[in-house]
């Protein structure tokens, strides 16, 4: 039944694509109860992701005890995560119950730009967070001398600048191309590779440029993180006591888990061999690293870190106290 529905829907979509001035972003093609269930799951995850990352930002801003480079970088990373999920998820949720699933040319290219830009910024932030952990473990006596407020600010600004310029040239070039035939993108986001398939003439150089930039934004920070943690591991193994080694590892455990989730799923998405059910697999992998990983990150950092737990309790306590005061004023 679902196969027949999908074939009919695709045929109708193919016919309607001839008369639209934009793209058709198919997204997920489930129907009935499956569609409603998936919609509710994704909506819940999206709301919890915003609440989780927002709580970390508020905790770092309000609790002066954790005004350290590590947590300030974490708050910036949480802000990037919130922006990252918001580039695609609202659009994906809206298309669940949309009949034509049409996205304008400008809307598609803006989504493509900000999705990959913010994803690249996340990679850079994970790299400078690894550098912060390296200084804290390998250079503890010089940590506050090296990791000054000025250096931290410069690194954050550089991450944003490089990220925003990284995909600027490809997006401008692709947006100038002409597109022929059915403008159907069988994906949940405006990915450059399905878009390039729809061009009137092959563009191998543009495709190579997009592939190269996507790979470099992953590979360069990844190898920097690997090198950093190699030095950290050597330093930790030289610590004589088991308790000292455990404490040293605990300070970077959360970051390592986040790096593993993010890079593992991203590399599967863009560096794995192609398979027969490419579109469905790509959707699932993209959904994982663009939505599930940002949802898990606040849980990883809050559950594994006592200082963050205490700061979050303080924030939640202040919030509940404020609500109680407002309620008592209204009822009195």
How is this structure best described in words?
- It is a single chain.
- The chain is an all-alpha fold and 332 residues long.
- The chain has a single domain (2-289), classed as Rhopdopsin 7-helix transmembrane proteins (Up-down Bundle), CATH 1.20.1070.
- Helices cover 78% and strands 3% of the residues.
- The protein has 13 helices and three strands, in the order H-E-H-H-H-E-H-H-H-H-E-H-H-H-H-H.
- The chain has helices spanning 2-17, 32-62, 69-86, 89-95, 105-138, 143-146, 149-166, 168-175, 192-197, 204-237, 242-271, 278-303, 306-331; strands at 22-25, 102-104, 184-185.
- A three-stranded mixed beta sheet has the order 2-1-3.
- Helix 2 packs parallel to helix 12 (278-303), helix 3 (69-86) packs antiparallel against helix 12 and helix 5 packs parallel to helix 10 (204-237).
- The longest helix is centred in the middle third of the chain and has 34 residues, at 105-138.
- The radius of gyration is 23 Å and the shape is globular.
Salient structural properties:
Rhopdopsin 7-helix transmembrane proteins; globular; 332 residues; 3-stranded mixed beta sheet; 13 helices; single chain; 3 strands; mainly alpha; 78% helix
Q: What profile does the largest beta sheet have?
A: 3 strands, mixed
Shape: globular
Order of helical and strand elements: HEHHHEHHHHEHHHHH
Q: What is the helix fraction of residues, given as a range? A: over 70%
Radius of gyration, in Å, reads: 23 Å
CATH C-level category: Mainly Alpha
Regions with little confidence, pLDDT below 50 for 5+ residues: 1-19
Query: What would you say the CATH architecture is?
Result: Up-down Bundle
């Amino acid at each position: 039944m679902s196969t027949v529905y999908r074939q009919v829907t695709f045929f109708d979509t193919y016919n309607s694509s001839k008369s639209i001035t934009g793209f058709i972003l198919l997204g997920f093609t489930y129907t009935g109860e499956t569609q409603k269930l998936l919609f509710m799951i994704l909506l819940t995850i999206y709301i919890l992701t915003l609440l989780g990352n927002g709580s970390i930002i508020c905790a770092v801003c309000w609790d002066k005890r954790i005004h350290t480079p590590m947590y300030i970088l974490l708050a910036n990373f949480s802000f990037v995560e919130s922006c990252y999920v918001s580039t695609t998820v609202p659009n994906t949720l809206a298309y669940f119950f949309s009949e034509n699933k049409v996205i304008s040319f400008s809307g598609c290219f803006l989504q493509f730009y900000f999705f990959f830009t913010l994803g690249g910024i996340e990679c850079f932030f994970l790299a400078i967070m690894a550098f912060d952990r390296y200084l804290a473990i390998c250079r503890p006596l010089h940590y506050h001398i090296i990791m000054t407020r000025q250096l931290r600010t410069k690194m954050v600004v550089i991450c944003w600048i490089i990220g925003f310029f990284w995909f600027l040239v490809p997006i401008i070039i692709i947006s100038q191309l002409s597109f022929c035939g059915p403008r159907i993108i069988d994906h949940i986001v405006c990915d450059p590779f399905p878009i390039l398939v729809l061009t009137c003439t092959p563009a191998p150089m543009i495709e190579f440029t997009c592939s190269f930039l996507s790979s470099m934004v992953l590979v360069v920070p990844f190898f920097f993180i690997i090198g950093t943690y190699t030095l950290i591991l050597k330093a930790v193994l030289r610590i004589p006591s088991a308790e000292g080694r455990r404490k040293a590892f605990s300070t970077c455990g959360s970051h390592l888990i986040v790096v593993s989730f993010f890079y593992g799923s991203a590399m599967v998405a863009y560096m794995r061999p192609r398979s027969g059910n490419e579109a469905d697999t790509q959707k699932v992998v993209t959904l994982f690293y663009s939505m599930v990983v940002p949802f898990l990150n606040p849980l990883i950092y809050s559950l594994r870190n006592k200082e963050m737990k205490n700061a979050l309790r303080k924030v939640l306590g202040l919030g509940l106290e404020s609500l109680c005061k407002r309620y008592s004023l209204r009822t009195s």
